[in-house]
Amino acid sequence: MPRSGCRAALEKEPATETGIARLSVNLARDTMEVLRLLASRRAASVTETIRRAISVLQFVEDEVAKGNKLAVVETDENGEQRVREIVLMG
């Protein structure tokens, strides 16, 4: 996924009575294309895709904060598995 600049600013008004806050985000064109692709894969809205991404990021950061590691288990064509650790920067 492209690592392009992203700026976001929460509006100064508090969340509405329904608990929803509006957010304005500036994304590079290639980042927006990836966001739309991810949304289309799940037949979801861009808003729902962003919510899911935030939830995943929160889970990952919480696990790393506990000292846990994040990994991907790959299975090759022979059925053998290989574990690759994902190292987060920053």
The DSSP helix count reads 2
Biggest β-sheet description: 2 strands, antiparallel
In percent terms, what proportion of residues is strand? Answer: 15-25%
Give the N-to-C terminal Cα separation: 17 Å
> Which sequence of strands runs across the widest sheet?
1-2
Structural class: alpha+beta
Query: What integer value in Å does the Rg equal?
Result: 17 Å
Summed over residues and divided by their number, the pLDDT gives a mean of 87
What is the string of helix and strand elements? EEHHEE
Percent of residues in helices? 25-40%
Low-confidence stretches: none
* Number of separate strands: 4
Structural account:
This protein is of the alpha+beta class. Helix content is 37%, strand content 24%. It has 2 helices and 4 strands. The strands form 2 sheets. It has a two-stranded antiparallel ribbon with strand order 1-2. Strands 3-4 form a two-stranded antiparallel sheet. The protein is extended. The chain starts with 5 loop residues before the first strand and ends with a strand. The model has no long low-confidence stretch (mean pLDDT 87).
